[in-house]
Design brief:
Layout: E1 7-9, E2 16-19, E3 25-27, H1 31-69, E4 85-88, E5 95-100, E6 105-113, E7 121-128, E8 133-136
Antiparallel strand pairs: 1-2, 2-3, 4-5, 4-8, 5-6, 6-7
């Protein structure tokens, strides 16, 4: 969108002009400088708007992913026993799990620690016969890879 501004002569026959909205008389030769500065500011505003569109696109995609992840847990009876899943073993968070045919229960990754300060963390297999529920593991979009 182009904003049209009226230009006023100072009325005394000099080369001073007043561009509406600038609030001051400037030499006519400075008008080109003013026009370039305004053009630069307009381009910066356009760039900011375009950046906001990209940020909005990222926000929409993130919200969609979060919505998919925060759906209700599926009953454990419907969990695929041939795939890795996100398992709710009753801790208030999900963990990676898989059906263990030999033990006839679900096995999941549990974090343990070798010291009292939480510096030496490691994963250990734990078993659960009656998990609360499950969700599929969200897939990461690698942009066509």
């Amino acid at each position: 969108m182009t904003t049209k501004r009226r230009v006023f002569l100072d009325g005394n026959g000099s080369s001073q002009i007043n561009v509406e909205g600038l609030g001051a008389y400037v030499p006519a030769t400075d008008l080109l400088d003013v026009k370039q500065k305004l053009g630069t500011e307009i381009q910066q505003l356009k760039d900011q708007v375009n950046a906001m569109k990209v940020d909005l696109g990222i926000a929409v995609k993130t919200a969609s992913t979060l919505n998919a992840v925060t759906t209700e847990l599926q009953p454990i009876s419907t969990a695929p026993k041939s795939d890795m899943i996100m398992l709710d073993a009753g801790f208030g968070f999900l963990t990676a799990g898989h059906w263990n045919e030999t033990e006839q229960c679900w096995v999941y990754a549990a974090i343990n620690c070798n010291d009292d300060e939480g510096h030496d963390m490691y994963f250990e297999n734990e078993y659960e016969k009656n998990p609360v529920g499950w969700l599929p593991i969200p897939r990461i979009d690698k942009g066509g890879e």
